[in-house]
Prior knowledge:
By secondary structure, the protein is an alpha+beta fold. The chain has 3 domains: 12-119; 133-195, Helix Hairpins (Orthogonal Bundle), CATH 1.10.287; 200-355, Histidine kinase-like ATPase, C-terminal domain (Heat Shock Protein 90, 2-Layer Sandwich), CATH 3.30.565.10. It has helices at 17-33, 44-51, 57-77, 83-132, 134-160, 166-194, 207-215, 219-224, 244-261, 316-326; strands at residues 202-205, 228-233, 240-243, 269-276, 281-288, 331-335, 341-348. The longest helix has 50 residues, at 83-132. The chain is elongated. Residues 1-14 have low confidence and may be disordered.
Amino acid sequence: MRSSRHFWATSPSMIPPITTALLAAAIFVADTATDLEIAVAVFYVAVVLLSLNFCRTRGVWLVFAGCVALTVLSFALTRTGSLQSGLINCIISISAIGATTYLALKIESAKAAVHEARAQLAHVARVTTLGELTASIGHEVNQPITGVVTSGNACLRWLSAQPPNLEKAKQAVERMLRDANRASDIIGRIRGLAKRAPPEERKWLSINDVILETLALTRSEIEKSGISLQMQLAEDIPLALADRIQLQQVILNLTINAIEAMSADGPRQLLIRTVRDGTGSAIVAIHDSGGGLEAGKIARLFDAFYTTKREGMGLGLTISRSIVEMHGGRLWAETGTPRGAVFQFTLPIEGKTVA
Length: 355
């Protein structure tokens, strides 16, 4: 209850448990050994706040209990100074520690609730987008299945021939396996996008590979709409630390928006490109040849529930920007040249180039 020392941490997230314990010990020694009429034990609130980085709720309450016990023990061991002042400082310190613990846990609980709500919203947006692509996805899955049936019938014919043509039958079986694996890959990507992905599933990924995987779900939609697709994917893009499902969601949403922005009676060209920007980031750009963007409304595009679609939710771009920003990048829109719109986002990348 007696010291003027000010304890300060440079970065709470980097403070390990042992350092927190040493801080608590230093506060206890200062509180017990000095006779200044100051509530030194109030600095235990720093110990409680630091414990949030490595303890769950129960652990934080245990840290709180330990700090209170050290405060009372220090009061009992202190032989100098005014007894009345020491008692008042002890009560002040315990009250401050208790209030800080309660408020800190309430704030952490609120943050967790917001994070969960965002995850739920992102999941809903993904499922809604997949719903819009039902026909395209069905066509993508049906193609390899049709291939399996065709190759199977061919295999039977080659085996029924006199004499059986085993080499042709073998080639037919190989085609069956290739088509079956292709169908399995498509279904796997759909399941990945539709399910609730675990939080912070970030791995070192090739951005170009993620783009190609995502476009596999929209290929039929692009062909059916008579859109000319061009891809300019830089080969020197290093790996990016990203959540594959979330990154696919951003690319899928921007691609679907671009497809829907192009009218049937105008040019229908879609360009997707990647490039290094020279500042430790990669840029992914999706350029459509639609009617473009109104200058006065570009800033509103990323507002929640703002939409230019008749049946849109107005959440796709909002969620996409949130995902990109959580990855340390940024997402923005520009009017295209000579026409259309360009949606671009950046992602921090590793220094090592993909082989």
